[in-house]
TrEMBL record:
One GO cellular component term noted in the UniProt record for this chain: cytoplasm
Cross-referenced NCBIfam families: adh_fam_1
InterPro entries for this protein: ADH-like_N, ADH_Zn_typ-1, ER, GroES-like_sf, NAD(P)-bd_dom_sf, Quin_OxRdtase/zeta-crystal_CS, Zinc-ADH_QOR/CCCR
Similarity-based family: Belongs to the zinc-containing alcohol dehydrogenase family. Quinone oxidoreductase subfamily.
Protein name: Zinc-type alcohol dehydrogenase-like protein
Organism of provenance: Tritonibacter scottomollicae (Epibacterium scottomollicae)
Length: 336
């Protein structure tokens, strides 16, 4: 089968950063399903895994953490899917990735593909959807179904992939969304997705938010980097909560959090699959819930750019665009 991978961890400008491969087609066992991949999306985690380092793989490494496709075959313990089912999912960072013509994935982290979306539109969603959903509803404890309607959330880095779906999930939960964006195109993008207010994270966010008549916000999600930590601590309400997904090595003074009895949470959407937690199937459930919301017209895809086919040249370009840090929404590569 066809696949895209690499043996050396090279700068994305290097022509050998990705290679077109022919590898053996895998067979599903246990809870695994074999998916004929139709489209994949590129996330910042892809670029971090592939980032240059002094390491050489004996066998080419295949990465990729978003896919939409069709179930080709199932393992002996599979109960959620059958051949022919159309699915979308984010995979498992500890296993071979989705940048392959056929891919093995545990059924418990897979959802049914939204019927109203194409494979490319669906592939843009899983990793970011799981991240935002778990950040809001599992980590911060916001009620998905509206019991916390009217509360406020500040989404820092709202124009990226996680923020783009996060705005929509927060609005569906009835929250007032303050979204940060620093460029005209990303400001327009987050407003289109439903943000109530747009704040420039390259300027004084505290002053901007208080100019709106808002002293504190109930929840904060940091979806870009932790350079905004002290701003977040200043803006969070007493007994509120902050969640982040990145930059574990930056300073995070906790004095202000203690004085407010505020909580802090890390979100890592691979934790369930990596540790084979007892509740892995929750990712299947949440992806299927979001598929229902999409098909009901309440949430839309976040794809902003589509490329074809899935090959080394296009994967290198997709990674380059993500590495600029300027991409809005998601970049999708489709078709082998």
């Amino acid at each position: 089968m066809k696949a895209v991978g690499f043996t050396h961890y090279l700068p994305v400008e290097d022509a050998n950063a990705f290679l077109d491969l022919e590898v053996d087609k895998p067979e599903p066992k246990g809870h695994d399903i074999l998916v004929a991949v139709k489209a994949v999306a590129v996330n910042p985690v892809d670029t971090k895994v592939r980032a240059p380092k002094d390491k050489v793989e004996d066998q080419a490494r295949i990465i990729g953490y978003d896919a939409s496709g069709v179930v080709e075959a199932v393992g002996s313990e599979v109960t959620l899917f059958k051949p022919g089912d159309e699915v979308y999912y984010a995979g498992d960072i500890t296993r071979s990735g989705t940048n392959a013509e056929f891919h093995l994935v545990d059924e418990r982290i897979v959802g049914r593909r939204p019927a109203s979306l194409s494979h490319a539109e669906a592939a843009a969603l899983p990793l970011t959807t799981i991240t935002a959903y778990e950040a809001f509803f599992d980590r911060l404890g916001i009620d998905r179904d509206g019991a916390d309607s009217g509360q406020s959330i500040l989404i820092i880095g709202a124009g990226g992939g996680v923020g783009s779906i996060g705005i929509q999930l927060a609005k569906q939960a009835g929250l007032k969304v303050l979204a940060t964006a620093s460029r005209p195109e990303t400001s327009a993008w987050v407003q289109e997705l439903g943000a109530d207010h747009v704040v420039n994270h390259r300027e004084d966010m505290v002053a901007q938010i208080r100019a709106l008549g808002i002293q504190h916000v109930d929840h904060i999600a940091i979806f870009n980097d932790m350079r905004h930590w002290e701003t977040a601590v200043e803006l969070i309400r007493p007994q509120g909560g902050i969640v982040s997904i990145d930059d574990t090595d930056l300073p995070m003074p906790m004095g202000g959090m203690k004085m407010k009895a505020a909580s802090f949470h890390w979100e890592f959407m691979f934790a369930r699959s990596m540790h084979q937690t007892h509740d892995m199937v929750e990712q299947h459930k949440l992806l299927s819930y979001v598929a229902d919301q999409i098909d009901a017209g309440k949430i839309k895809t976040t794809v902003s750019k589509r490329m074809s086919p899935i090959n080394a040249t296009n994967m290198r370009e997709a990674h380059r665009l993500v590495e600029t840090g300027q991409a809005k929404g998601k970049i999708v590569v489709e078709g082998f």
